[in-house]
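Format notes (please read before filing issues)

Several people have asked whether sequences and structure tokens are stored in separate files. They are not. Every record keeps both together, in the order shown below: the sequence lines, then the token lines. Line labels are part of the format and must not be stripped during preprocessing.
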Amino acid sequence: MTRKEYNTAVDLHADGLYRFILKSMSDNEAAKDVVQDVFTKLWVKHENVEFEKTKSYLFTAGYNTMIDVFRKNKRLTQMDESAVNLHSHSGQYSDLEEILEKALQILPEIQRSVVMLRDYEGYNYQEIGEIVNLTESQVKVYIFRGRKALQQYLKSIETVLE
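Then the structure lines:
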């Protein structure tokens, strides 16, 4: 990949990669750090990455880097107080986006990632499998289970709000 192709890849994919990472991490600064780290990795390996495959490379590297950050943070802090409150419903919700964000946060990280890659980013099952290193059938199962969990969570919120 040439320098010009690298810059084109940054222009084309930086926003989408950032949205994906931000939705999973819910931390603006951490998401920016992951995206920057991924583009640094791409530049280091730019001679070995074909321009046509940069999007797949970026999202795969982004997913793996994000998982590394989750694992590192999990080791550093046993249980964050916000994790205890994920399933509690206090106050009145008026913002659908906030409700959906909280619903996504209850999913295990693999389910959240595949649902977001499919429903937010529009990847097909095969591409998602390549990004998260799963078979196509595993991706379908995780998406089904994730959507089912989201459906149950949103139904429970609907009951609470009535």
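For reference, the curators noted about this record: Confidence is low (pLDDT under 50) at residues 78-93. Residues 64 and 132 are 8 Å apart (CA to CA).
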